[in-house]
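Hi X.,

You mentioned you wanted examples for the new student's onboarding notes, showing what a folding record looks like when two proteins sit in one file. Here is a clean example. The first protein comes first, with its sequence line followed by its structure tokens.
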Amino acid sequence: MERLLSLSEFDLDYTEHKDSFKDLAKLAAKVTGTEVSLVNLIDSYTQWSISGHGLEIEQMPREDSVCQYTIIDGEYFEVEDLRNDERFRDKFYVTDGPKLRYYYGIPLKVGDDHNIGALCVLDKNVKELTPEKVELLKIIANEILSRLKDLKVITKLKSKLAEASEIQKKVAHDIRGPLSGIIGLAQLISEQGESNQIEEVLEFTNLIHKSGRSILELADEILSADKNDHKPISNGAEFNLLVFKDKIERLFIPQARNKNILLTVTTSSESERIPFARNKLLQITGNLISNAIKFTPAGGYVNADLSLEPNDHAHILQIQVKDSGVGIDEKAIEKILKGNAASTTGTTGEAGFGFGLALVKHLIETLKGSINIYSKPGEGTVFEVRLPQKMQ
């Protein structure tokens, strides 16, 4: 669970960073003399290949990957011949093209304990890496982690710049009104000259005083916000429901097709262009969709419905994931909502790792949202998530 939380802190869109690591992936292959190298990140259900060299692949189920063993422990994981290892001999990348045989992986370690993924090299022929080549791989893996951390910092800076831009617009808008009032009243007093009645002057002065007070209050508000700048802000660039829908489709339709499941994503037309922060949304929705695919038989469906409900103080983002799967009984629902659900296998024997829904619940709670589950055994499941979104 702690490992997944470390990965979620990067708040990555796994399809965005192919070019950011392409040179390092190529360098890893050249250093080791292998045909293939991949930069893989592993979440609850999926191995995401965020960049690579020599093999076009974006994702695979976690239980099919070799890198899932690399992240367990140790400094490396090596398989001299995948065909002779019962864990991998029947995997598609061994039996079909590219018919890989050799694997060597270095974990991508955050801090002292959490391996969020792996840098791996693979080849169609058996290889032997010298200590010098292994040391160079470790250096490349460290550089990949440095770039991931840099991307995280850049994302936060972009968010701060966007926030500063919004404050600037607000200040310009809020000051313009009171200042226009002050200037207009002062001009009126000046134009009337000696014909001003004392009562009118006092009334104008009172209005000027009120306008001045509103500017002063705005200044206090800005200074207070500056003092509270240490508070966490939304991580990630702002986007809207249309962008959110596109990212979900690109990331998870391949998973659904692989199991012959129809995945559809719908949005509310009234609010689909309203901007909001993407903070952890792909992690939350992605885990719910992957879980729904896992427990839906072939030929079934999964639908993700996205909507944004206007509110006086904050918009409410509603995410509903509905499937035609095996369903959940009341006891299992209660365990999920308490955060202690046990791992179970999927409808075609997909391995369970026990953390996907626990991670979803944790992330929703940190964002001060709520989750409800509606289901009966054999009748599918509906997950409903509500998350407050700061108004822009």
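Then the second protein repeats the pattern, sequence line and then tokens:
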Amino acid sequence: MIKKSPIALAAFLVALGTASISVLPATAQAQAPTQTAEEKEKAKKEVIRTEWSKPYIEIQKLIGEKQYQAAAEKVAALDASEKKTDYEIFVLNRTRAAIASGTGDNVALAKSFEALIGSEFLSPEEKFRFMEGMAGTFYTLKQYADSQVWTKRYLAANPSNTMMQDLLVQNYYLADDFANALKEVKAQIASDEQAGKVPDEKRLRLLHGAATKLKDIDSSTQALELLVKYHATKEYWADLMYRLIGKQGFSDRLRLDWYRLMLANDNLEDDTQYMEMAEIALLAGLPLEAKVVVDAAYKAGYFGKGKNMAKHKPLQDKANKQAADDAKTLDAGETAAKAAKTGLAMTNMGYNFVTYGQYDRGIALIEAGLAKGGLKYPEEAKLHLGVAYHKAGNKAKAAEVLKTVQGNDGAVELARYWTYMK
């Protein structure tokens, strides 16, 4: 038995509903009261001859009892009769569809659907349902080109149906037409975002899959960014972050900033990463940040064991001592930074205050340093200012600042990624 198509079966049942087909003669139909002229004309066409009444009732009963083979035999007998009307042909196709749906014969179901769609006896809404059923049936049969035909036909008249939009992309993808799959899903995602709607995770994964098949690095990175933005997981973050640090042109100067974001999304995965981050923070004159990293490593179970265990305690002692000494000289450090000729010391000292949780003081000092100028890497300072606002809980201001970061050394991406952090 052929596997049933959930889409086709659901569409078929909705299209058929519970209405039974009339078996009264035309003269009896015409006598129904309160009919319009159009309804009377329609009623004249939608009639089965009297001699079909008994066998057709038997067919309906057999279908209800799931005796599909017996029902099919009676349908074949009726089909052999001569001079069938268009409506009787329609009835036979509709009945064959019911039998095919019940037996899971998608080949026969598709053939019946196509005949029904071409008839004059389905309403436009019913034709939509049957087009949907045709697309789903061919998809289940892995006849993706045929499914595309019916999906496009449906979408031409009803372009906003998301299920059919997704089906079209899946058809392209499974037919190895990755270029069209990428084009279609990109348009869908753009439309979602323009409408203020969160793109479905499945769509974003299809974008990533199609782009990967095409070796389109920019599009696959776009997909990862959107997955992190709308459906963040630790795994999506890891894929995105490792792609960034491996990108040509990424500056090693921003490695500490990369580690900060990795720590924020819980993706530091071994003691060597914690050690490197702490050591870079110490070199940057941020001993408290180094202490926080070491403490986090112990808490997560990365320090105090393993082949590097002998290095953990000395690093902890060093970070603790320098942090204690630094805490005693914060005021003096701020005074010296303000007296410097350029704003570099102010931006550095400002971020140091941020590590102590003194956000207002730190933000003010970074902003003053940027205003003073003379910075070799002003975009890096703007990145730190945006992160400072984020850590202070002012996400709107953080986003405003982070959007101003420019360059091609990785700072732009780090700034944008911070706006994805909740």
